[in-house]
UniProtKB/TrEMBL annotation:
<dbReference type="InterPro" id="IPR046349">
    <property type="entry name" value="C1-like_sf"/>
</dbReference>
<dbReference type="InterPro" id="IPR004146">
    <property type="entry name" value="DC1"/>
</dbReference>
<dbReference type="GO" id="GO:0008270">
    <property type="term" value="F:zinc ion binding"/>
</dbReference>
<protein>
    <recommendedName>
        <fullName>Zinc finger PHD-type domain-containing protein</fullName>
    </recommendedName>
</protein>
<keyword id="KW-0479">Metal-binding</keyword>
<dbReference type="InterPro" id="IPR001965">
    <property type="entry name" value="Znf_PHD"/>
</dbReference>
<dbReference type="InterPro" id="IPR011011">
    <property type="entry name" value="Znf_FYVE_PHD"/>
</dbReference>
<feature type="domain" description="Zinc finger PHD-type">
    <location>
        <begin position="34"/>
        <end position="96"/>
    </location>
</feature>
<keyword id="KW-0677">Repeat</keyword>
<dbReference type="Pfam" id="PF03107">
    <property type="entry name" value="C1_2"/>
</dbReference>
<keyword id="KW-0863">Zinc-finger</keyword>
<keyword id="KW-0862">Zinc</keyword>
<feature type="domain" description="Zinc finger PHD-type">
    <location>
        <begin position="150"/>
        <end position="185"/>
    </location>
</feature>
Length: 248
């Protein structure tokens, strides 16, 4: 968290040279602004620069510069405003999606987390589950990385390759997005879970016709790679030349 003036809700943040003011977004059908930290649309209140279009979610703006996260207890994680990976991006160890936005990173281990993933609650109540609140699980010690189980909320498959919520009493688990429905990356978790489940089923029953969903994982990864290339070309002013070369 940066320097905050509580009298007028003004924030001086390291990421921006101008003061940011806490503002309520107007209602209506106007397209919401995107947070410069996590790259997701904003709703409700925002920190906004009066001089330019710089916007931050209050939750993103108030993160500390360093934190110790239970998913990586050996080292502190440091807030990075730009990806430090070799290709200007990183792989989030929670949702397993490529990130281009701010992250919390352990430099010695190359361990990165999206800001929305860092903000997931350690425990949360799940609808239609009678036991105590589910706890956030970073791996499945019973079956190891990459196994599948059925979500206690939606009954769809989820992969333990990504974080999930689990009940310590009955062993049931659930998608992150089913337990925390307002989580910005909920669809990212679910899409990869569905795609990997289809691929696993196809490998288990090779004689069965492949469902259309079995191609989603490869398509998702391809889309991420294409998006990364376009971003890099656009940053260097080379995107028009690349488009012309493809047409030729």
């Amino acid at each position: 968290m940066e320097r905050l003036n509580k009298e007028n809700d003004t924030l001086i943040h390291i990421s921006h040279r101008h003061p940011l003011h806490l503002t309520d977004l107007p209602g209506g059908d106007a397209e919401p602004p995107y947070c410069h930290a996590c790259r997701f649309p904003c709703t409700g209140s925002i920190y906004q620069c009066a001089s330019c279009r710089y916007v931050l979610h209050p939750s993103c703006a108030r993160f500390a510069r360093t934190l110790r996260h239970p998913s990586h207890p050996s080292h502190d994680l440091t807030l990075r405003l730009t990806p430090t990976g070799e290709f200007g991006c990183y792989l989030c160890r929670s949702c397993r999606h490529i990130g281009y936005s701010w992250s919390f990173r352990c430099e010695p281990c190359g361990f990165d987390l999206h800001l929305p993933c860092v903000a997931l609650p350690a425990a949360a109540a799940a609808p239609a589950h009678r036991h105590r609140p589910l706890r956030l699980a970073y791996e499945d010690p019973r079956r190891g990385l990459g196994s599948f189980d059925f979500c206690a909320v939606c009954r769809g498959g989820y992969s333990t390759a990504r974080w999930f919520y689990a009940c310590g009493e009955c062993g049931l688990g659930a998608h992150v997005g089913c337990v925390v429905p307002d989580m910005p990356l909920r669809d990212a978790y679910a899409a990869l879970d569905k795609a990997q489940a289809a691929v696993a089923d196809a490998a288990r029953w090779p004689e069965a016709p492949l469902p259309e969903e079995s191609q989603q994982l490869e398509e998702l990864l391809n889309e991420q790679a294409i998006g990364f290339v376009r971003m890099e070309l656009d940053a260097g002013g080379l995107l028009p030349l690349f488009a012309k070369a493809c047409q030729d």
